[in-house]
Amino acid sequence: MASKPGPLSEWPWKGLGNYKYIVLAPWVAHSVYSYVTSKDEIWERDLTSLLVFPYLLWRWIHGQIWITLARFQTARSKHRILDKGIEFEQVDRERNWDDLIILNGLIFYPMINILPGASNLPIWRTDGVVISFLIHAGPTEFLYYWLHKALHHHYLYSRYHSHHHSSIVTEPITSVVHPFAEHIMYFILFGIPMAVPVLTGTGSIAAMLLYITYVDFMNNLGHCNFELVPKWVFDVFPVLKYIMYTPSFHSLHHTQFRTNLSLFMPLYDYMYGTMDVSSDKLYETSLKGRENKVDVVHLTHPTTLESIYHLRPAIASLASSPYAPKWYLWVFWPITYGCMLLSWIWDTTFTVERHLFDDLKMQTWAIPRYSFQYFLPWQKDKINSLIEKAIVTAEEAGAKGEELNGNGELYLQRNPKLNIRIVDGSSLAVAVILNSIPQGTKEVLLRANLSKVVYAVAEKLCQKGVKVAVVSSNDLKNLKLRLSTELWSNLIFASTCTQKVWLVEAGVLTEDEQKQAPEGTHFIPVSQFPVKRARKDCVYYTTPALVIPKALENVHACENWLPRRVMSAWHVAGVVHALEGWDSHECGDKLLDVEKVWSAAVRHGFRLPIVVHSS
């Protein structure tokens, strides 16, 4: 909100939360009913009211396209204007960017019936389209400039416009994030180019759609944090310098506040002396770009089909929350399955996140393969090829470390002269699991597949004199094959499940087994997938992860099902490895010194998440 919220700052439907679109339902139903029950011939029926809802839907889709493209570009582009990130606070502040769409619907539906000439509009009239854009270039741009200048007066700024300017680093949706009262003012202003053609009998459905699409397009473009308007546009058409702004032009307004006040046409800043003198220089600097250096690359991949919507470039409100299935995502099933089909043929990783930790620059690259594809034998060679290609690309980019969610010995064998360090994160995962076990624990129950991490955890516990119980004779046999004989006395076969600490893995531990556990049992995952909770009287831990320090910037998306600002141990491992400057790989069967890795992580500000009891 603004620093001193004024009257009508809150949106009237705020209390409805995610159900806010229900306020449009009566109007949508009425428009459909009126069209269907009309006694006119079908080609003579009024489409104006019926097309309002598709128009609102188009605005949402248009905005979402800009969100996705902008977030994708800011993660990888060298043309960033401000080399800074955004945080969860900004995402939360801007998550209701679609309130404007609802407001438009609630105004358009009644106005079609009230405003003379607003109903039965033709599909197209050229003169009306021309009038709309001429009025925008003249009265609307002029009036907006002075309204905007008034909003920067300390009285109005503190009560309204400061809410918008809370975002220094802007995203496309920042453009429409304003208090309710401010949007009312904007609607009156932008309503002029739509109302005049209607009142003069030259209005059309296309004129309104084109004008609003133009406003949305320019608004979104101007709030991108990367420059995308090529220089040749202004070289070929010099006059555009006065009638079309650029992202870098408007970015200066968000950093300098008192300059570059115009809407889309810098002409008015030239006329009234508010043009920022550094506008041209910033434009050229942004176009030239900066060195896109990367120190650490974390390789990941989508998990479930719906997990694509939780990636940072997708739906911002979902990406900023821990992953959980959402029933309403079935609406997007064509996109969901389209992305799945695309993943079969897409042969390049893509950048989804960019972080900064002091001077260490990190990126997260996604391999276009879902979890289920890793279990398909005929996909194995292709996935290995994608990972190897990513390692070589990271090496060429000058990265110090590459984090793999799996053993990377194969890639070292194929590329023995790598300068980059390959880190699978197992050592830190082991350290996190060991330090998550409550002090004083004498015995643990192991219900997980035997992996590199699990073998190491079992060995460390046995060395500390902690009993490790298993319910499978094969597991007991395999553990004894890997552990030295002096530790065998701490490996036991469990005939009952009385242990209060269970080391578990999703897909191995069943709900029935959870129900057999004693009250207050601690379920500690030893893999990257969380266990489905079946008890309210037990303690469930996150998958091995650490809370990140405040110095780690540009974190505004959750990593899978982890809480905000919590990063998986496998992800943190590469960061710690690079910060310490360690020269060894960690892949295959090799583990680093677990205590040394843990001490380094703590020293750099990482810590265990707070465990909350379910009851």
From TrEMBL:
It is found in: Membrane. It is a multi-pass membrane protein. The keyword Transmembrane applies. One of its GO terms (cellular component) is membrane. Its main location: membrane. The chain crosses the membrane at residues 184-212, 327-346. Residues 135-274 form the Fatty acid hydroxylase domain. Residues 444-607 form the Very-long-chain aldehyde decarbonylase CER1-like C-terminal domain. InterPro entries: CER1-like_C, Fatty_acid_hydroxylase, Sterol_Desaturase_Related. Keywords: Membrane, Transmembrane, Transmembrane helix. GO terms for molecular function: iron ion binding; oxidoreductase activity. GO terms for biological process: lipid biosynthetic process. Belongs to the sterol desaturase family. This is Fatty acid hydroxylase domain-containing protein. It comes from Papaver somniferum (Opium poppy). The lineage of its organism: Eukaryota, Viridiplantae, Streptophyta, Embryophyta, Tracheophyta.
